[in-house]
Design a protein that fits this description.
Layout (H helix, E strand, L loop, with lengths): L1 E3 L24 H5 L4 H7 L8 H12 L4 E3 L3 H9 L10 H26 L7 H24 L4 E2 L2 H6 L6 H7 L1 E2 L1 E4 L6 E4 L6 H20 L4 H20 L3 H20 L4 H19 L2 H10 L1 H21 L26 H28 L7 H14 L9 H14 L3
Parallel strand pairs: 1-2
Antiparallel strand pairs: 3-4, 5-6
Helix pairs in contact: 3-5, 4-15, 5-17, 6-9, 6-10, 9-10, 9-11, 9-16, 10-12, 11-12, 11-16, 12-13, 14-15, 15-16, 15-17, 16-17
């Protein structure tokens, strides 16, 4: 295995025409299963487990290949994966070890996805095909969003749970495999169903929608096929409604920051098309807020935001205090503080930043942020057209780190970073 550096500001290299299909191959099926294949995974009830496939399958391929190369930017992530194993010493129950292993595999999946994409050839696995699959997952999430709005009470055991028998009712298994379109919450003073599928929580849905939006734009909007582009505009417009009714502030903030950042960087180069699209998107949102019930939901969310902020501040304080108590290796797993309200989630689950701090200590947090921040900076220097979209996805993900748990979405970081490395011809 070798470590390579990164070239910046390199000229784009010619590539073969992209093949537009959603079919997997023997090489790509682990990535397909968690993207374009998500509807099939959900029907089976394994939607929470397919995110481990990159760590297991791609990891095995990497280990068996003596010629594989690791980009230099992955060094913090490699060290992170080794360091956080020390956190296992703080776990006291058998189920805790199972949950720890699952989460470790998700972080490992970010590394293996990146390294595998860097090493596999464009002829064998085309980058545009991965873009299309990621865009297909975005469309899938929007479709699930509408199902959550139309059938908010739908809850059912999946075939995977039924096949497991009593084991399928275990909390960890149930959360990852149960059929449920929406997460109903009452923080606005009345029951509010919010899109969640194929994840177990609305925040997971919102995090994935945000990170995947640049790939949808690249696959459906930014390309020469006029018919596909027109269809893409319709799909994108349809996606605005579930994004609004999810009353997911983290999603809104990350998308706004991403769009403004993108438009600003383009404008600095004298290209104002992105700014025009941003203005058009704002007009569409205003129309939907005025003409649909989404306006009332957004208004209620903003009115209740102070209470939500107070609850989050309490959890953040508990996470910081817990990290200070065990600053090197953390606490091993999220935990509910004894003085918390019964309806409050465990400490360390309200944001990747706080999760890393509480569960893996300040060292683990620093290593992961060093990797992600490094990938954001490196991808921002890539000068190819497609490099913009992978960079934007990473920027949106970085914005989400303080308030979204990003498990299993962290695997998407690895895919985006891997695609970005492919845009660097060195």
């Amino acid at each position: 295995m070798t470590v390579t550096g990164d070239a910046v500001d390199a000229d784009p290299v010619p590539r073969p025409p992209a093949v537009r299909n959603l079919r997997p191959t023997k090489a790509t099926w682990p990535l397909w299963a968690m993207t374009a294949g998500m509807p099939f995974a959900y029907l089976l009830g394994i939607q929470g487990f397919v995110w481990c496939l990159p760590a297991v399958v791609l990891g095995a391929r990497i280990v068996s290949d003596r010629q594989v190369r690791f980009p230099r930017s992955t060094i913090p992530l490699v060290v992170f994966l080794g360091w956080i194993l020390l956190s296992m010493a703080m776990i006291g129950t058998g189920s805790g070890y199972l949950l720890f292993l699952y989460r470790w595999l998700l972080f490992a999946g970010a590394l293996t996805s990146l390294v595998w994409l860097v090493n596999v050839s464009e002829q064998r696995v085309r980058s545009m095909q991965i873009y299309d699959w990621l865009a297909a997952l975005w469309i899938c999430l929007i479709a699930f969003g509408y199902l959550g709005v139309l059938f908010p009470e739908f809850v059912q055991k999946s075939p995977f749970q039924i096949a497991l028998g009593p084991i399928g009712n275990v909390g960890f298994i149930d959360e990852l495999s149960r059929w449920r379109f929406a997460e109903t919450q009452g923080f606005l003073g009345y029951p509010l169903p919010r899109p969640a599928a194929p994840f177990n929580a609305t925040n997971g849905w919102g995090a994935a929608v945000g990170i995947l939006t640049p790939f949808f734009l690249r696959s459906w909007i930014v390309q020469p096929d006029l018919k596909r582009r027109r269809t893409g505009y319709l799909i994108g417009l349809a996606g605005v409604y579930p994004i609004l009714v999810s009353v997911n502030r983290g999603l809104w903030i990350s998308l706004i920051v991403g769009m403004v950042y993108f438009a600003a960087r383009k404008a600095l180069r004298g290209k104002f098309g992105a700014f025009a699209v941003l203005c058009g998107a704002m007009v569409a949102v205003v129309v939907l807020l005025v003409a649909t019930p989404a306006g009332q939901l957004v208004g209620d969310k903003l009115d209740k935001s102070e209470k939500s902020n107070d609850s989050r501040s309490s959890l953040y304080s508990e996470a910081l205090a817990g990290a200070v108590d065990s600053p090197l290796i953390g606490n091993g797993a999220p935990a509910r503080p004894a003085d918390a309200r019964p309806d409050m989630p465990p400490v360390g689950t309200h944001g990747m930043l706080w999760y890393l701090m509480f569960v893996h200590g300040f060292v683990g947090m620093a290593l992961f942020l060093a990797w992600l921040g490094g990938e954001v900076l490196r991808s921002g220097r890539v000068r190819t057209a497609d490099g913009w979209w992978t960079h934007l996805a990473l920027v949106i993900g970085l914005v989400q780190v303080p308030f979204y748990g990003l498990l299993p979405q962290v695997v998407l970081f690895g895919i985006a970073a891997g695609l970005s490395h492919r845009e660097d011809p060195s």
